[in-house]
Amino acid sequence: MSTGMIILLIVIVIVAAVVVLAAALTLRGRTRRGGPSLKRRFGPEYERAVALHDGDTKAAERELAERVERHGELRERPLDAEGRERYAARWTVIQEHFVDSPRQAVAEADQLLAELASVRGYPDGGRYEEQLAALSVHHADHVDGYRQVHRVARAGASGGLSEAGAGTEEMRAALVGARALFDDLSGPGQDSGRHRAPSGTAGGPKAGPGTHSHARTPTPWALHRSRPKES
User: Fold this and answer.
1) Hey, how many other C-beta atoms are within 10 angstroms of the C-beta on 92?
2) What count of Cα atoms within 13 Å lies in the side-chain half-sphere of residue 65?
3) How many CB atoms sit inside 10 A of residue 90's CB?
4) First vs last Cα of the chain: how many Å apart?
5) pLDDT in tens, 135-187
6) Would the N or C end of the chain have less CB density within 10 A of its end CB?
7) DSSP letter string over 130-187?
8) What DSSP element (H or E) covers 46?
């Protein structure tokens, strides 16, 4: 065998070894991102992704891993105290609107969340799916509230919901669910949603001394089914 042929065989072996090593490292990286790690990071979003993929865990994990790859390095822009108070006031108005116009209140909540997320550094609300995916990486526990209020707002705009009976109940549930993400995005903390101390939910306990008032904005009775309407 000639010297040239020997050199060629050595080069082929080296290239093949490099390819195998690269494939192994890629597989190892995907394995690290998958399984328990993704399940812990995404919580309810993990279960939802698996359900959407008809129980195909690997397909769901590929989708979630892609979200992390695209948006995992995103850092939320800070929101100053004035901005927090301004958004809190707007949310209070939305809750008050629900009494007389549930459909309008839900549409306003959807728009406000899209705007607030954009201000905090997430993709623009005009790219809803991308914005939702980014939010799911950093606020996995509460992002479904945004998903629900957006769906209900779209249905209301197209006439798919009435403002009586089941339609009103669905809108009420969507608005209450969206409040958790609003608290995450408008709060003073800078950590991701899954690592932030739980904020008050609608109708939760009152804020203690030194707590920003917007974190516990009272929820109108209209958002609680159990409280009868006063005359």
Assistant:
1) 15
2) 17
3) 17
4) 102
5) 999 999 999 999 999 999 988 776 666 555 558 899 999 999 999 999 999 98
6) C
7) HHHHHHHHH-TTTHHHHHHHHHHHHHHHTT-S-SSTHHHHHHHHHHHHHHHHHHHHHS
8) helix 44-52
- Angle, helix 102-119 to helix 166-186, in steps of 10 degrees: 20
Are 46 and 38 a contacting pair, CB within 8 Å?
A: yes
Q: What is the pTM of this model?
A: 0.68
Report the distance separating Cα 77 and Cα 89, nearest Å: 20
Q: Report, in angstroms and rounded to the nearest whole number, the Rg of the chain calculated over CA atoms.
A: 24
DSSP 208: -
> Are residues 79 and 186 in contact, defined by beta-carbon separation less than 8 angstroms?
yes
